[in-house]
Specification:
About 5% of the residues lie in helices and about 50% in strands. It is mostly beta strands.
């Protein structure tokens, strides 16, 4: 049998160091109703995965007084939350939990609520594999009157998954920004886009969305979650003999 040399060990290290990213497993949404809204995912959640919840609403009172969001579920899990961002009309916020308790109910039912009340709400729920509860940044943005919106920038590491969540109470059609993957979107009553991206390199990122007409009533937020240290199937193990 040939002896594995330093070159062989270096090859193994390089192959195992190839980065890969978390992935969207499933998603579901509830919309247009007054608080609270409930969402049940279509399939059982895999143990260890992360549930991400985007909530948007137009508060009965002038925001932020009328925006007191919460995400809960029927397994009594406690969700982390991003900063609440608001303008004079709308509020957006993202909640998440990694490795939630999945008993006695799997798939769980997630409740999105606003204790101050809302005329309209969006509650969007997504399951992602291989994420942690640790964040690399959170920022928001509002506009005066424009057809595009970019959040403030955040700095991420190489394998972050970055979420953008935008809402609008106008009549224009909203779309995700170039290069962003859509989780869910709607252009009825309270419009919204829930999107995600994977950072192929460490750096500065902004979430972006567009409207078909200039609008002064929309808002957005960006959140980066770190990936777990290992992801199944991302490395290639080479056990060939060294030279």
């Amino acid at each position: 049998m040939k002896k594995l040399t330093t070159t062989g060990f270096l090859l193994i290290f390089l192959l195992l160091a190839i980065p890969c990213h978390a992935s969207l497993v499933q998603h579901a949404a509830s919309s247009q109703g007054a608080t609270p809204l409930t969402v049940t995912l279509g399939s059982a959640v895999t143990a260890g995965d992360t549930i991400v919840v985007g909530i948007a609403g137009d508060g009965v009172d002038t925001p932020p007084t009328g925006c007191k969001f919460a995400a809960t579920d029927n397994n009594s899990n406690s969700y982390s939350s991003s900063t609440l961002f608001n303008n004079s009309t709308l509020c957006v916020q993202v909640f998440w939990i990694t490795a939630p308790t999945l008993s006695p109910n799997n798939p769980p039912t997630i409740t999105c609520a606003d204790s101050a009340g809302d005329n309209h709400m969006w509650c969007d729920v997504a399951e992602f594999s291989s994420l942690t509860t640790n964040t690399d940044g959170n920022a928001g943005a509002t506009v005066t009157s424009t057809t595009s919106l970019s959040t403030s920038s955040i700095t991420t590491t190489v394998t972050d998954t970055i979420f953008g969540f935008f809402a609008d109470s106008g009549s224009a059609t909203m779309s995700a920004g170039s290069g962003w993957n859509v989780i869910d979107s709607s252009n009825t009553n309270l419009h919204f886009v829930f999107e995600y991206n994977t950072g192929e390199a460490a750096g500065t990122y902004s979430a972006t969305a567009s409207n078909t007409a200039a609008d002064a009533t929309w808002i957005g937020t960006i959140l980066a979650l770190k990936q777990t240290s290992t992801v199944t199937g991302c490395g290639i193990l080479c056990l060939g003999a060294g030279h």
